[in-house]
Amino acid sequence: MTPMPDTRRRLGVCYYPEHWPEERWALDAAQMVEAGLSWVRIGEFSWSRLEPVEGDLRWDWLDRAVKTLGDAGLQIIMGTPSATPPRWVLDKYPDMLALDAYDQPRKFGSRRHYCFSHDGFRDEAVRIARQMAERYGRNPAVQAWQIDNEYGCHDTTRSYSDAACAGFRNWLSEKYGQIDALNAAWGNVFWSMEYRTYDEVDLPNQTVTEANPAHWLDFHRFSSDQVVAFNRAQAGAIRAVTDAPLIHNYMGRTVEFDHFAVGADLDVASWDSYPLGFLEDRSDEGAVWTKRFMRQGDPDFQAFHHDLYRSVGRGRWWVMEQQPGPVNWAPYNPSPLAGMARLWAWEAFAHGAEAVCYFRWRQAPFAQEQMHAGLLRSDAAPAPALAEATQVARELAELPDVALPRPRVALIFDYESAWAWSVQPQGRDFDYFRLVFEVYRALRRSGQMVDILPPCVSDLSDYAVVFAPGLMHWPDGLRAQITDHKGLCVVGPRSGSKTDTFSIPDAMPPDLPAAQVLVERVESLRADAPVALEGGGAFHIWREEISGSATVLERSQDGQAAVTESGNIRYLAGWPDPVAMLRLVKTALLDADLPVIDMPEGVRFADAGSTRFVFNYDAVPVDLGEIQGLKATQILSPGDVAWVAI
Ligand code: GAL
Questions:
Q1: pLDDT tens, 358-380?
Q2: What's the 381 CA to ligand 1 centre distance in angstroms?
Q3: Within the chain, how many helices (H) and strands (E) appear?
Q4: Catalytic residue among 44, 51, 124, 150
Q5: Is residue 200 flagged as an active site residue?
Q6: DSSP per residue over 309-346, as a string?
Q7: N or C: which end of the chain has fewer CB within 10 A?
Q8: 150 is catalytic
């Protein structure tokens, strides 16, 4: 019988017993327990110690580590080690390395040095995963499994190797059947690109000028499917021996593979949350914003991923790695403000996380991450985050009710659209993640909890408003759902502007009859040429000239229709700048009769069951009593969290 999932909220930590003398393990375990940690993740980079040469399996040390941690009362997440194949695996399969877009090998000496399409490596990864599962799958201390580590990290989803090329040709022939069907779907008559056989189709890199966007899009789809297949193969091997939940740890702002598709084969989604690293490394907001939040992180970036991965995990999700202090990999690596290691954990729990695991227990004095903080310093003295983690553990014990959030607002997130607009941005600033994230930010600034849903969603009826910005094409079912939805749907810019084979639809964008608009012409805008809107703010990056019988709700100052409405469908004919975005999103919420709370830039809240959690991401105190409708009255210090009953 499958045990009931243990969904109590817990803290944990990532630990590498192979990095430390064995005499130390019991003390580490005892200190973890003393700090109130329940989960410990091990194993995910340990292949060279488990199997130093092919077939010579050395379980003894891992047996003892599992026993020590388990005897201390910790629950183990066992990681399969396929992200770090040891050198002998490469000697066995010299062509297993991924090639970059310039056909250069991505060599041994760090990690993730494998091509997802290499069958020999895939079998090797499944074999070691199976052996680990056979060894530990029934061990009561091992209560969850992590497969591989951060698919796609370090730009590793796509590979231009021979294995990838062969795999792509097979994938295409399965998809299209006769080669003429591919030629027709891609429009290969253009520039005489027609193929006679699948053997003639190469990968789309290294062409003279841009390759056909349909070719690129299919290569993105294929590459994503290879990640899904790689993960599925390990998942199958582990599932054969254990009922423990299978998990993968995804990343922030990583869109190169379809996380919903990978997640469908797993039980729990998790992600690795590095708020300060991500702010420095992957924010669009510019220097003033980055400086303001340099010790706290972007107030919306974590929550966006919490909500996204809650959906990827079909309600079950964790933070597998939580930043504890300065990291080593961003352009600048500041220290967090006191309190942030606690705030980040609480924000995750408030968005429904079952577990938050800090990365890592003890700072390594050697190798690539020696400048990366842990809960302990490299000399084993406590680092500042240990006290904060201990505080969270104490607070969790007295936790009120943290039920899963029940948002009334849905935001569609589609990985294919991210690929499509990276292939054909038609203006250098058009980035799909950024567009969706900016809608999300405006929703959060307006006091909303949000569900981030895949485009193939089965039921939208719980939502008062649905946003589908920049959706490349309407997948089966979504067009009908949007058309029939009882609540408001806000679509555009660029939604429905392609077919699924990357052509302009015959019906013309947005290819949504109920919207009663037709996009006549589009233009991308230079950063110094926004188009002002009548109601304030502007369209920037992108705007469209539209016609049709929908009611014009607002025009740009040059007289063109900017926002229209027909029935339940509102169309945005451009990319609103932050001022316009906030205004238009807020108007949509009010029109849908949702209560709006105007949140200051650095303060956010999350409602979980009957508890409202409030987070101060700013570096100055905030008087919550001044926020109309928030129902909280405290003065919240920088980096502090408050919770109130609602
Ligand atoms: C993650 C990774 C960890 C560690 C960490 C450092 O991306 O999963 O193994 O490298 O970053 O911040």
A1: 999 999 999 999 999 999 999 99
A2: 22
A3: 18, 24
A4: 150
A5: no
A6: HHHHTTT-EEEEEE--S--SSSSS-PPPPTTHHHHHHH
A7: N
A8: yes
